[in-house]
Design goal:
Residues 116-147 are annotated as: Disordered. Residues 116-132 have a biased composition (Basic and acidic residues). With 147 residues, the protein is an all-alpha fold. The protein has a domain at 1-57. Helices cover 63% and strands 0% of the residues. Helix 1 packs across helix 2. The longest helix has 35 residues, at 76-110.
Length: 147
Amino acid sequence: PEPAWTEARELVRRTAEERGWHLEPDSPALDRACDAAAVVLSMDVPELVPLLGVYADAAERLAEQEVATVLTMGEQADIVRGVVVGTVLGEELLAALRLLAQRSVTLKLLQPIDAHPAKADHDEAEPGHAPHETPGQDDAPDEPAAP
């Protein structure tokens, strides 16, 4: 194996060990995690390496909830169905929700600071009125324009 992959495998193993996880050495999930970590290591972005622990913590919390939920499904066939459906759809849902959250957090963190707070206060609407609406203005819906 390449040096980055060997280092990644040790990093993933150590991360799992810190959490008391049981690892199967021939697990495809272990190989997938090592492949991803190896790319991070080989791309020379050391700032991302500590995120492995963040991902592991989030994955563990999610796994605890998922397993606890499917174990309440009763019969073994229902539990198996819950595991399969939850795993397949959960991966898609998690990836999509992560993208939505990243966009939201990015917008929040990069939002420009309002340099004119007094102007913002002035532009606020009076209760029951839209901004820049004249109080007492006709609240009836606009009539459609004549053809």
